[in-house]
Amino acid sequence: MNAILIFLQKAIAQGVGILFGANGEILTEKSGNLNLGVPGMMYMGGIAGLAAAYLYENGVASPDPLVGFLLSFFCALLAGALGGLIYSVLTVTLRANQNVAGLALTTFGVGLGNFFGGSLSKMAGGVGQISTAITASAYQAKLPLLPGIPAVGQIFFSYGFLSYFSVVLAVALWWYLNRTRQGLNLRAVGESPATADAAGIDVTKNKYVATLLGGAICGLGGLYFVMEYSGGTWTNNGFGDRGWLAIALVIFARWNPLNAIWGSILFGALYILYLYIPGLERSMQELFKMLPYLVTIIVLIITSTRKKKEDQPPEHLGLPYFREER
User: Fold this and answer.
1) Where are the alpha helices (DSSP H) in 89-160?
2) Which pLDDT tens digit goes with each residue over 269-295?
3) Which terminus of the chain is more exposed, N or C, with fewer CB under 10 A?
4) For the whole model, what pTM was predicted?
């Protein structure tokens, strides 16, 4: 029983970063922008937050965890938003191919994160020695008393701020997209930008805002990994394929932030399942790592055959919009 509880706890911890990335991409894709730069924006958010915390902790005599928390949090947001801005300029203003721009952003973000991560490690005295434990303690702080509740406390109340914030953010995003005029306008842009434009909705503004905010949310996914999950440390290429799993989760969740909540836990469980099966060879471990993608493909096939409108991607997803052609 205890092993099952530990497995569930680890699955949730794995899924939180994926949930941030998925919700950031859902917001972006609702505007019609297909941004494959999620991994890059997660790296940008992670290294920006870590660098801000590290420079702060080593720049004052008695660093305050709360100050480090605020600095790293907002720097991660800004770095992720910067990634979204780069993508928006390339695709919305310069009309570059969305797939190429997204992949280029991923390459740029991962390279940027690894470069500055290595540079900070050298500043700290050697590769792998960078640590921002003081700031990380603020992210890893748990609710008082509740984690001590048998079973329930271990599963639901043994996480830090960003874990709970990811769920709150997902619910807020669902409400925004489905219960507000601005959210409905954004969805209209993703479905038919020409129609939205004719109705007086600013297509370019909506695409920019959604992509910037989506990038900021992705940046928090990277911040979660380095601060709450890894305890304030950096490892080059340490994010693995979590950014790509976030993109897969968007499809699995059928562009619904609420579905992404439980879907992220499932993906987290599938992502670490091979660790709990004894005797697996390396080749079999790699096959098990494919499970989240396999499940996504199955869901995509099922939803495509059913053709329910609410289960489909925005109709204009990934397509350029030229106002003069409407």
Assistant:
1) 98-123, 133-140, 152-156
2) 999 999 888 888 888 888 888 889 999
3) N
4) 0.95
